[in-house]
Amino acid sequence: MTVTRYVLLLLMALPQLSMGEDESAGGVADPWEPMNRRIFSFNESLDNHLLLPAAKGYRYVMPDPAERGVTNFIANVYEFNSIFNSLLQGRPGNALQSFGRFLVNTTVGLAGLIDVATPMGIESRPADFGQTLYTWGVDSGPFVMLPVFGPRTVRSSAGYFVDTYTSLPGLPGVIEDRAWAYLFWTVEAVDLRANLIKADELVTGDRYIFVRNAYLQRREYFLTGKIQDSFSNQERAEDYLEF
Question: Which of 151, 173, 178, 237 has the smallest C-beta neighbourhood within 10 Å, fewest atoms?
């Protein structure tokens, strides 16, 4: 859930990282920068004192295969969101592909603990509600740094909360005891942070601008497959991944 998560998500998605010091990426304005910086500082403190120590402890006690299994399980749960949003975007082929991944990994892959769909050639086609709003022509709105949840735009903020409450743990009737849903989201946050520990060293210069531009460019690439090519190269995120 923390800012570092989005840096690595960008690096995983892009051939090379772009980094600017004076302007936001993708043409999205940052009129709330003073407030955003204060929230960013709060998130950094929360990460340093709570989530990062929890993630380090999690990584210490979890064997690598078990940690990969948890990551795969979480990704499989969110295939449901990809199915739902692909249908809303009028992309039945992508919805069918996501359904195939969900079906294969849930059954043959032991509830998603093992990703057997990718080696079978059923590639991931992720879709979220922020992308759906983009497809419907909704403007991104200004950049905003949310407490706890990190960098967003107004559009992707709305999309994030819709995705959360339309995910399998969030749907009424799927999990009767809501405590299990909150446990899932907590484990998700810790697992994500554990997988991003090595990404901390990639953040250079003004950390707020780095994270802001990284997030905006990651979203631009996710939505359009294109990115401005005006900054310096950085190391690929794959060099820092162990899964």
Answer: 173
36-66 in b/e burial notation, b at 16+ Cβ within 10 A? bbebbeebbeebeeebbeebeebbeebeeee
Question: Do 213 and 19 contact (CB within 8 A), yes or no?
Answer: yes
Confidence band, pLDDT 50/70/90 cuts, at residue 132: very high
Residue 149 in contact with residue 160, Cβ under 8 Å? yes
How many H helices and E strands in the chain?
Answer: 10, 2
**What does the alpha-carbon distance between residue 210 and residue 188 come to, in Å, rounded to a whole number?**
24
Using CB atoms within 10 A of its CB, is residue 234 exposed (0-12), middle (13-18) or buried (19+)? Answer: middle
Between CA 99 and CA 80 the distance in angstroms is: 7
Look at residues 123, 163, 161, 156 and name the one whose alpha carbon lies nearest to residue 222.
156
The closest alpha carbon to 93, from 122, 118, 114, belongs to 122
**Neighbouring-strand partners of residue 152:** 144
Q: Measured between alpha carbons, how far is 140 from 31 in angstroms, rounded to an integer?
A: 13
Closest to 129 (Cα-Cα) out of 103, 157, 101: 157
CA-nearest of 195, 194, 207, 188 to 45 is 207
